[in-house]
Amino acid sequence: MGRYIEPSCRLCRRERQKLFLKGTKCFTEKCPVERRAYPPGQHGQTRRQKISEYGVQLREKQKIRRMYGLQESQFRNYFEKALSQTGRTGETLVKMLERRLDNVVYRLGFAPSRKAGRQLVTHGHLLVNNTVVTIPSFLLRAGDVVHVRESSKKLDVIHSSMKRMKDNAMLPWLSLDKATMSGTFLNVPERADIPLNANEQLVVELYSK
Q1: Nearest to 38, CA basis, from 22, 57, 14, 58
Q2: pLDDT (tens digit, 9 = 90+) per residue, 34-88?
Q3: Cα separation of 70 and 61, whole Å?
Q4: Res. 186: pLDDT tops 90
Q5: What are the phi and psi torsion angles at 83 (to 5°)?
Q6: Which residue has the higher pLDDT, 149 or 165?
């Protein structure tokens, strides 16, 4: 499977908004979106024609896919699974993505970004219900407990990330215990509670063509 190896900030600039792919850098004046609010490339600043309906749908799909760090085939598989379930497909898709272990590790504050969270998971630094899980796409269920492995509690990346987590910033479907470096996935979140600046319905329209 191919993977993106170019600068992550180019993706944010392409979508013309912060996708929070670089952790703390996204909150500083060094963020390229703040300094160059136009798409990358030699034609980024040139005037472009009005974007088509298909183009709007495509950009929304790319934005969500890049936020969660997925390849096209992975994202399409999630959509197919969401399509087979009851309820609104777009909302089901987003809820499924939020259940990914690498995303929950990021949401709990154990990692500064989803990419960093994915790396922590694959290197075996996290446990789910006292069992080492090295699959970033592992889907959590209500009541699952995620905690940092005892031998990994001194990692600088985890400590520096947790220091930036404010007690009142925790999302309603998660519970964090900083003392034990553990967090609980309380329940599958409602779409209104998910801080995702995207219109997933456009993804449904795109794939339904």
Answers
A1: 14
A2: 555 555 554 455 556 677 899 889 888 988 998 898 999 999 999 999 999 999 9
A3: 11
A4: yes
A5: -65, -30
A6: 149
Which bin fits 110, alpha (ψ -120 to 50), beta or left (φ > 0)?
A: alpha
Write out the DSSP string of 36-89.
--S-SSTTTTS--PPPPHHHHHHHHHHHHHHHTT--HHHHHHHHHHHHTSSS-H
At 22, the amino acid letter reads: K
Contact 105, 23 (CB under 8 A): no
**Which carries the bigger pLDDT value, residue 151 or residue 9?**
151
Write down all domains in the chain, each with its CATH number in brackets.
Answer: 8-97+198-207 (1.10.1050.10), 100-187 (3.10.290.10)
* Helix residue ranges, H only, 71-150: 72-83, 89-98, 101-108, 114-122
pLDDT value at 8 more than 80:
no
Query: Which residue type, as a one-letter code, is found at position 81?
Result: K
Terminus-to-terminus CA distance in the chain, angstroms? 26
* Rounded (10°) angle between helices 200-207 and 72-83: 90
Largest CA distance in the chain: 55
pLDDT in tens, 117-149: 999 999 999 999 999 999 999 999 999 999 999
